[in-house]
Every structure is written in structure tokens, then in C-alpha cells.
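=== Per-residue structure ===
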Amino acid sequence: MIVAGLGFRVDADLNSLRTALLLACQERLPDILATAAGKEESAALRALADELALSVTAVPLAQLRAQSTLTHSPTSQAAYGTGSVAEAAALAAVGPNGRLLGQRHISPDRMATCAFAQGHGK
């Protein structure tokens, strides 16, 4: 399974999320989208999920904080207790023994980030 983790500002739009995902995907399509709990009902995220016909997984704060991320944003650290919401959400949603397929990618407008993770052995 491949999970696309998304971190984004409250006023991020569909284009911001789509662009971050396209930068991160490296020609792979995710099986699901994941983000921090509380962000799963964002209109932009729901539009992206509908566009890609994917479900969205909301990752609880404790699970985000338990992940080791490659990048470290002071903003994400202060708000969520993790260096990268995108990386942590992808890792948490893919499950134990998952691995990041690279560090997060940031949309050019800096409103959204995306990272991909894959389940071990898949």
C-alpha cells in the first residue's frame, strides 16, 4: 500500500494540494490520502480525494507525534509535535514497518506539503 500524507494550511486550495501531491508522487499513485485528525473534512482535501477517487484517513495527534520524520518544520513541530505532518501522516497511515519514499514536497505557494510512504515488503 502507498499512502500520500498531506499537511496544509487552513486556507490551502485544491491546486495547492494537487501540486504538492504531484511533486511527491514520482509517477506513483497513492492508494489512500492521510492527514492530521481535524483536517480530514477540509473542502480542498475532499475535492482532491473525490478527484482521485481515494479515501482519506485522519491520523490522531498521538500517532503523528510517534513518527520519525526526515524533515523538521518549526511550524509543524509547534502545532502538531512532529517535524512534518505530511511525512508523519503517511507513515502512521501505512502502518508498522512502513517507510517514507522520500521527504515531503512543498507546493510552490507554500500552502501544502505531501510525502509518500509504502508498507514494508509491498
